[in-house]
């Protein structure tokens, strides 16, 4: 028996009518991005592995466990993009975007790839919409980024979201926190998992990423970055908070949130939805003021966020948010007989050229069956093209909403 192929675990097909919801979300994202003056960037699905290793950080879960890395025929190590910030920064440097504009505001939509254990809201091929703002350290930019992200959710009518805020400091204040953290964890190493023991030596801040419950309980008591911020980071954080309060954007502090990527400095944020269960983070972002210079460019402060579309879909469905669906067609053309089919095809093509969404029967069905099909497709009108009608130079036009049927001279057809 022929083998039945299935989409890979952690990937899935998006079929109609669900694809209309995706299109609707994507259209909203583009609308909001235009209003906030962001321009689209499209970058490759795969890049040199090193870009992600250096950009995201060698000791992160993404780089150590989750990347789809492969060798191409030339022996190069390539990786399917697990996220978009590193590629955007690569493109920013490669195309000298800083020379073209002092501040660059970019957005992107598309699939990302991480080899995580699939569960509700967690896929191996998942989708993000995201924005990056490069070229300013202004705390107002942090607030714009948060508001931009929230605005997409507002326009979609999403409720019960919570914004969480933290500051992860900078290389000036981090060593102090690192020392405190090492001192705290030192005598707890036997109770911490093997990954955390590794993190302890490589990058102790990453212990906060640990999903093991015992580790999480222990780390609840750990010293947090907020208590070690340098003057500059503290000032910045205060101004972000003040601006948010001034703009009446609610937030909560989450001093344990470090985000899963090493490039963050200062502001880090997440938007979570209670309805999502374990995978409750709808979106996340923050500043990455050193990433451009780390990847070989001029020092350039920057901030961005990325939102998971798959999780957004779960939230939209669980909140029963309605959305317009474009599945219905305008006109169904129902020919009866061989000759009529020819005229019907001509009519079909001319109506489509005028912009009407039209369909015709390709199965030579009876008129009754064609009417049923027209109903199933939600056609507003049906044009019946019969042999007798052809001889008389007329069409029968049925309004499917009112049920009214009229004869119309072919030359005067109005739909
Ligand atoms: P991230 O937190 O790794 O950040 O991902 C952002 C969002 O992508 C998450 O909040 C989640 O909604 C979604 N996501 C991540 N992994 C999965 C998965 N396996 N399945 C489904 N959804 C997922 C970043 O990617 C950063 N590049 C964000 C950023 C942009 N920071 C600055 N600029």
Structure description:
Helices cover 37% and strands 22% of the residues. It folds into 2 domains: 18-173 and 229-318, Bira Bifunctional Protein, Domain 2 (BirA Bifunctional Protein, domain 2, 2-Layer Sandwich); 331-412, Rossmann fold (3-Layer(aba) Sandwich). The protein is of the alpha+beta class. The model has no long low-confidence stretch (mean pLDDT 95). Helix 1 (18-35) packs antiparallel against helix 6 (139-156), helix 2 crosses helix 4 and helix 6 (139-156) packs parallel to helix 10 (231-246). The longest helix has 18 residues, at 18-35. Strands 1-5-6-11-10-9-7-8 form an 8-stranded mixed sheet. It has a 5-stranded mixed sheet with strand order 13-12-14-15-16, with helices on both faces. It binds histidyl-adenosine monophosphate. The site of histidyl-adenosine monophosphate has 28 residues, from strand 6, strand 10, strand 11 and helix 12.
Q: Summarize this, please?
A:
Helices cover 37% and strands 22% of the residues.
Mean model confidence by pLDDT: 95
Broad structural category: alpha+beta
Number of domains: 2
Ligand catalogue: histidyl-adenosine monophosphate
- What would the CATH topology of the largest domain be? BirA Bifunctional Protein, domain 2
| Distance between the amino and carboxyl termini | 50 Å
Coarse shape: elongated
Largest beta sheet: strand ordering: 1-5-6-11-10-9-7-8
Report the radius of gyration as a whole number of Å.
Answer: 28 Å
Supply the CATH architecture of the largest domain: 2-Layer Sandwich
């Amino acid at each position: 028996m022929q083998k039945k192929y299935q989409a890979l675990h952690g990937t899935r097909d998006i079929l109609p009518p669900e694809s209309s919801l995706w299109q609707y979300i994507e259209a909203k994202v583009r609308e909001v991005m235009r209003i906030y003056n962001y321009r689209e960037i499209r970058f490759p699905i795969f890049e040199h592995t090193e870009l992600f290793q250096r950009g995201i950080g060698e000791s992160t879960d993404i780089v150590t466990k989750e990347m789809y890395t492969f060798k191409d025929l030339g022996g190069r190590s390539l990786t399917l993009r697990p996220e978009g910030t590193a590629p955007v920064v690569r493109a920013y440097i490669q195309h000298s975007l800083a020379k073209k504009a002092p501040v660059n505001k970019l957005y992107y939509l598309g699939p990302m790839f991480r080899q995580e254990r699939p569960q509700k809201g967690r896929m191996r091929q998942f989708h993000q919409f995201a924005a990056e703002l490069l070229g300013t350290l202004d705390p107002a930019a942090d607030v714009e980024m948060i508001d931009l992200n929230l605005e997409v959710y507002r326009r979609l009518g999403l409720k019960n979201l919570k914004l969480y805020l933290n500051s992860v400091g900078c290389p000036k204040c981090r060593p102090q926190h690192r020392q405190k953290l090492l001192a705290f964890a030192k005598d707890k190493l036997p109770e911490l998992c093997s990954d955390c023991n590794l993190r302890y030596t490589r990058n102790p801040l990453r212990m906060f990423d640990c999903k093991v419950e015992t580790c999480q309980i222990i780390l609840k008591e750990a010293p947090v970055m907020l208590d070690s911020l340098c003057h500059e980071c503290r000032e910045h954080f205060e101004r972000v908070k003040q601006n948010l309060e001034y703009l009446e954007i609610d937030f909560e502090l989450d001093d344990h949130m470090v985000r899963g990527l090493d490039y963050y400095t200062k502001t880090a944020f997440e938007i979570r939805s209670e309805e999502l269960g374990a995978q409750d983070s709808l979106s996340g972002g923050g500043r990455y003021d050193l990433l451009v210079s780390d990847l070989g460019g001029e020092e350039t402060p920057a901030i961005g966020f990325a939102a998971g579309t798959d999780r957004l879909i779960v939230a939209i469905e669980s909140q029963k948010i309605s959305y317009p669906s474009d599945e219905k067609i305008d006109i169904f053309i129902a020919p009866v007989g061989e000759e009529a089919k020819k005229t019907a095809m001509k009519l079909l093509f001319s109506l489509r050229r005028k912009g009407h969404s039209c369909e015709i029967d390709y199965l030579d069905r009876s008129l009754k069956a064609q009417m049923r099909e027209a109903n199933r497709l939600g056609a507003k009108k049906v044009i019946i093209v019969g042999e007798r009608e052809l001889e008389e130079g007329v069409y029968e036009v049925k309004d499917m909403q009112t049920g009214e049927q009229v004869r119309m001279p072919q030359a005067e057809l109005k739909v």
